[in-house]
Each structure stands twice: as structure tokens, then as C-alpha cells.
Design a protein that fits this description.
Layout: H1 2-5, E1 14-15, H2 21-38, H3 43-65, H4 87-120, E2 124-125, H5 127-137, H6 142-145, H7 147-150, H8 152-155, E3 161-169, E4 174-182, E5 197-204, E6 227-231, E7 235-240, E8 248-251, E9 260-262, H9 267-276, H10 280-300, H11 319-330, H12 336-342, H13 348-353, H14 360-377, H15 379-389, H16 399-422, H17 426-437, H18 441-454, H19 458-470, H20 474-485, H21 494-501, H22 512-523, H23 527-530, H24 536-549, H25 553-560, H26 573-585, H27 592-603
Parallel strand pairs: 1-2, 3-9
Antiparallel strand pairs: 3-4, 4-7, 5-6, 5-8
Helix pairs in contact: 2-3, 2-4, 3-4, 3-12, 4-5, 9-10, 12-16, 14-16, 15-16, 16-17, 16-18, 17-18, 19-20, 20-22, 24-25, 24-26, 25-27, 26-27
Length: 604
């Protein structure tokens, strides 16, 4: 879809210069995202795509915005243009387009696109030209009124922090929501001016019922149960009237702006949102925030210790969280793909982003303990989910069938994880059989992943069989390498396996896809295995960056980004990581691609 849509946004109308790269890439990512959501049926199925996109933004773009390679959506300088094919240009660029969509509405956005093509078909233009067309097509919109200020999203780097505080006055029957914004300095931009932040929101009663929203001094005809607030000042208070009970706010629905929301919801409020919010994205978000809160508390609790193997055996998840997840699994109306996302805990990289100083092994141990508990305590429910969704019939690529495969795959992984703790061999055996009998790649990979990630001995047999089946299909074999490079680390076993796989006859480091499948899966996507106390992972990384730089500087520069935020690490990782970066930077013969990354990393 993305490449097809480039026929219009990128080819028919293209970029005046490289600084406008997001004009085509960010806009086209937005179009492919919307197309994918429109292909879905139910609201919760539509939300699946939005959740997947936001997870990419949070785990890849937010860290980029907070690191030494931070740059605006429309950069004003570059050393090597290849280093600007980034998640900021693509994914954050798409979010800037989405905010314009939110500010002018769906019909207004269609009018803006029509005007954009009428004005600029066959021309090479700028991001400003696109925003101007949107505003001109919607002269009474919030975008048109604040266009110059809105365009700061193109020129200012960094992820804004959106702070929300609510207060309820029972006597006056009013609820006051105060929103404020701030943005940390980024390289070359010490101070930030206020952004225009669209905040879609609603209010729920304590029973989960949607409340009618009436802003003070506003025409009552505009009241509804969801509305868009626009924050353009450093801080602003919105007063809602005729509120009969203290509400539970549902903020940033649909992730209406690429910001970090800071709001001190109680656990009870988050559980209310998780169970009742009409906005599917915010239901998922409530579960993620609860899971994140539990993880951060456990990471900081020194009384929770790991055993000699690095595992935490204490029960970290409270009964309320377990019951909430059980409710999701058993919910009769929720789409299966949505359930699969709801039941996935926040990733290690996202958890690490919330910490000022990161001990990667501590983060890994806490998340694994949470995952093990979720697998064990919901074992009967996972079995029920497996029984209801494992018979997927003939392969179909529609969203419903895809969701059934996703939930069945998660259930099988959790059942194998529970079996690992109990020593039961039944479910690993079923996973191996599923692997052998699968009629499609999704089911086969799900079964193989369940065996590999649970560390069961049957994984070796399945991996050998997979290679025999697909050794002549390069793209499928990339999955085989990537799964092993991203495997859960147990006693430092992953790095030796990765080194051994580099000697495999089917591994060619000169093939970019093959290099990414194994080396990137280990260095960039497997923090629990990469960040070793003995620094062996960092030595491996520096050797591979140098080796790849002589072959393909663009691929090497992307790998170099794996340690561009070394300064956040706790000791002993911090010093060892910096030494590895310095080792690469000291090379006399480095490409501009890699030198820019490591030099900026050391300067940070």
C-alpha cells in the first residue's frame, strides 16, 4: 500500500529538496496506516493497527527524539542524508499529518488532499505547501487559526511532555482539567516554543458509563461524550459543567498527538478504563500503563532479588491486574487481534525509556517474571483461548482470521512458558506438532517461537526442520536467523549462538537482509541478551559495525545506533558501552554515515 500510494504522494507531487523528505514519506505512511485501518471491521480490530503503529513510535522514535541523533521532522542540516531515513521522518512525520487530520476532521482532510493535488500536481514542493493546502481548504478550522504555530512540529525536535491534572468540585458540579506542555532540549535546540497539541478525550463515570461533556460557556448543542481539546499555550484549564460525579478522564484517545502523557491516574481509574472505555486504543493504553507501573515499582524495589540464574521468582502482578487480563481473554465482543495486543506486556525497551538510569538485566528479569506469572496464573484461560482459536481452517488474509492466528500463537507461547515452570512436556509437544502440521507461515512461526522463547529442548529439532524446509527461500530463512538472534537469554546463551550462526553456510554478512536478521535482532532488539556484564555484547557490536562499514555504510550506521544512548546505562554497562563506541570512532577509515552517529553519541 505504501509504495502504491507513492504514485501520488511522492511521485505526482514530490519534494523540492532533501529537507522536505517527510513531505512524501510521512504523508505516505499516514495514508498506508489509514488504508490498513479501513480494511478492518470492528472498532477494536481497527485499533489493532493504531496500537501497532504507536508501539513503533514509542520504542523507536521517542528514544531517537531523546538521543544524540534527535532531529526535526524537517531537518535544517545534515552530514549524510542516508542517516535521515529515520523513524522521525517516517513515523513522526505521519503523526504530524494525523494531527492535521484530527484538527480539520475526516471530511476536511479529504478536501485538503484534493486542494493539495490540484495546486501541486507535477510540482516539487515543501512541507509548508502541504500544511497550507490543508488550512486553506478548511479556513474555519483550528489548524487554520494556528497554522504558523502548528508548523513548529516540522522545525522543533523532541517529544513534548503533556501533563494533565484534574479536580472535581462536587458542590459546583464541575470538573476542571488542566493541561500543560514542556519539551526537553535536543541537540542544537536548547529552548522549545509551545506546540499545538490536539487532545481527543472523554469522561467516564465510576461505573464506566460515558458522561456528557459540556465545556463552560459553550453552546449546549455541542455537547457529546467525546471531544477534541486543543492545547496551544504552555498551560490551559478546561472546565466541564453538569458533572454529577467525580469522573475518570480518558485522555489522548486514539493517540491523537505524539506526546508522552503524564497523568497520575489511580490503579482503580486505569482498571475502569481498561474494562469500559469506548475508545479501544485507550483500553489498551490503560493496561499498558498498569503493566508499566508494576514493572517500574518492581525494578526500584531492592527487596525483590534475583536468584543465581538471574531469575526473579516473586509474584509481581497483583490479583487485580491478573483478573483484568482474565476479563480481556474471556470478553465475548473484543476482536481476537485486539486481545492479543492487550495481553502483551510493555516491552523491555519501552520500560527502559521511563528510567533515568537503566540496568538492562534488571529490566529483563522483572519483565520475564511478570510474563511467567501471567502465563502460569491464567493457564486455564490460555487453554480455553487456544481451543477456541487454534482451528483457523484454510488460510485467509482477512483481519478476523489474522486475529485468530495471533491470539492462538500467543496462547501457545504462554502455555509453553507455563509448562517450562512446571516441567510439563504436554504443551511443548503440542507446539512441535502444530509446527509440523501448520498450513501457513504464521502458525508455523508461532509454534516455533513458542518453543524457542520458552527454551524447551524440542526447539532444536523444530529449528533444524524449519531450515530443511525453507533453506532455499531467502526471505523465510531471514525469519529463522532473526528468531534465534532475538531469543530469550538464559545464562548468556544467545551471543555464542549468534556467533555460531555467523559461521552458518547460509549466513552472508554482505547481504543486508541477512545481516539485519541476525546481527540487528541481537544488538538492537534483544537488550536482555545484548547488555552483558562482561561487555562481550559490546565488543561483538563494535566488531560488526567496523566490518559492515567496509561493506555497506548505511547498514553499519543503523547498527551503530544500537549504542547511541549509552549514557543512560547503569554501571558496569555504561563505561563498557562508551569504550565500544570510542573504539569505533577511533578508526581512521570510517564512512561519514557511521562517523556522524558515533561522534554525536560520544558528544552526548
Amino acid at each position: 500500500g505504501h509504495e502504491y500510494f507513492h504514485n501520488w504522494t511522492g511521485n505526482r507531487v514530490t519534494c523540492r529538496d532533501w529537507f522536505q523528505l517527510s513531505l512524501k514519506e510521512g504523508l505516505t505512511v499516514f495514508r498506508d496506516q489509514e488504508f490498513s485501518m479501513d480494511m478492518a471491521g470492528s472498532p477494536s480490530a481497527r485499533a489493532v493497527k493504531r496500537i501497532e503503529d504507536v508501539r513503533v513510535l514509542r520504542t523507536a522514535q521517542f528514544p531517537e527524539d531523546a538521543g544524540p541523533m534527535a532531529h526535526p521532522v524537517r531537518p535544517d542540516s545534515y552530514i549524510e542524508i542516508n542517516n535521515f531515513y529515520t523513524v522521525t521522518i517516517y513515523e513522526k512525520g505521519a503523526e504530524v499529518v494525523r494531527m492535521q487530520h484530527n484538527l480539520v476532521g475526516r471530511e476536511g482532510f479529504a478536501k485538503g488532499m484534493k486542494l493539495y493535488f490540484e495546486r501541486h500536481d507535477g510540482h516539487a514542493v515543501t512541507c509548508d505547501d502541504f500544511a497550507q493546502a490543508m488550512a486553506d481548504a478548511n479556513p474555519g478550522s483550528e489548524l487554520a487559526r494556528r497554522l504558523d504555530q502548528f508548523k513548529r512540529w516540522y522545525s522543533q525536535a523532541g517529544t513534548p511532555q503533556l501533563h494533565a491534572e484534574g479536580s472535581y468540585d462536587a458542590a459546583a458540579r464541575t470538573y476542571t482539567l488542566t493541561l500543560s506542555q514542556s519539551c526537553a532540549p535536543t541537540p542544537g535546540q536548547a529552548e522549545k516554543l509551545p506546540f499545538v497539541i490536539p487532545v481527543q478525550m472523554g469522561l467516564l463515570g465510576q461505573d464506566g458509563r460515558a458522561l456528557t461533556l459540556r465545556l463552560q460557556g459553550e453552546d449546549q448543542a455541542e455537547a457529546g461524550d467525546s471531544r477534541l481539546l486543543v492545547l496551544s499555550e504552555p498551560s490551559h484549564s478546561f472546565v466541564f459543567t453538569d458533572v454529577d460525579q467525580e469522573p475518570v478522564p480518558s485522555l489522548l484517545r486514539g493517540f491523537s498527538a505524539p506526546v508522552v502523557l503524564q497523568h497520575s491516574d489511580s490503579d482503580a481509574a486505569l482498571l475502569t478504563l481498561l474494562a469500559h472505555d469506548s475508545d479501544a486504543f485507550n483500553r489498551w493504553e490503560a493496561g499498558q500503563r498498569l503493566g508499566l507501573r508494576i514493572a517500574l515499582q518492581a525494578i526500584g524495589d531492592t527487596s525483590i532479588t534475583a536468584d543465581a540464574s538471574g531469575q526473579i521468582t516473586a509474584a509481581l502482578l497483583p490479583a487485580s491486574f491478573i483478573e483484568a487480563m482474565r476479563g480481556v481473554l474471556r470478553h465475548p465482543q473484543l476482536d481476537a487481534a485486539f486481545k492479543e495486543l492487550m495481553l502483551a506486556l510493555p516491552g523491555e525497551s519501552y520500560i527502559a525509556e521511563q528510567l533515568a538510569v537503566v540496568d538492562p538485566q534488571r529490566v529483563h528479569a522483572v519483565r520475564e517474571a511478570m510474563r511467567q506469572q501471567l502465563a502460569t496464573e491464567l493457564q486455564a484461560d490460555w487453554q480455553q483461548a487456544w481451543q477456541e482459536h487454534s482451528d483457523t481452517g484454510a488460510y485467509r488474509p482477512d483481519p478476523v482470521s489474522s486475529g485468530r492466528r495471533a491470539l492462538a500463537g500467543l496462547a501457545l507461547s504462554m502455555l509453553c512458558l507455563a509448562a517450562r515452570a512446571s516441567g510439563d512436556s504436554v504443551w511443548p509437544g503440542k507446539a512441535l506438532q502444530r509446527f509440523k502440521d501448520a498450513g501457513n507461515m504464521t502458525d508455523r512461526m508461532s509454534a516455533l517461537t513458542a518453543l524457542v522463547q520458552s527454551g524447551h529442548p524440542l526447539a532444536a529439532q523444530a529449528l533444524a526442520r524449519f531450515h530443511k524446509l525453507f533453506q532455499h527461500d531467502a526471505l523465510v530463512l531471514d525469519k529463522w536467523f532473526a528468531l534465534q538472534g532475538g531469543a530469550c537469554d538464559r545464562g548468556g546463551n544467545v551471543l555464542p549462538a549468534v556467533k555460531q550462526l555467523m559461521k552458518h553456510p547460509d549466513f552472508q554478512i554482505k547481504n543486508p537482509n541477512r545481516a539485519r536478521s541476525l546481527i540487528f535482532s541481537y544488538c538492537s532488539a534483544n537488550p536482555g541478551a545484548f547488555h552483558r556484564a562482561d561487555a562481550a555484547g559490546y565488543v561483538f557490536w563494535s566488531e560488526r559495525v567496523i566490518e559492515l562499514d567496509a561493506i555497506n555504510p548505511q547498514v553499519a550506521a543503523r547498527l551503530a545506533r544500537a549504542l547511541d544512548r549509552w549514557s543512560k546505562l547503569a554501571e558496569p554497562y555504561r563505561t563498557a558501552a562508551r569504550e565500544a563506541v570510542a573504539r569505533v570512532a577511533a578508526r581512521a577509515e570510517l564512512s561519514n554515515d557511521v562517523r556522524e552517529v558515533v561522534t554525536r553519541a560520544l558528544a552526548d
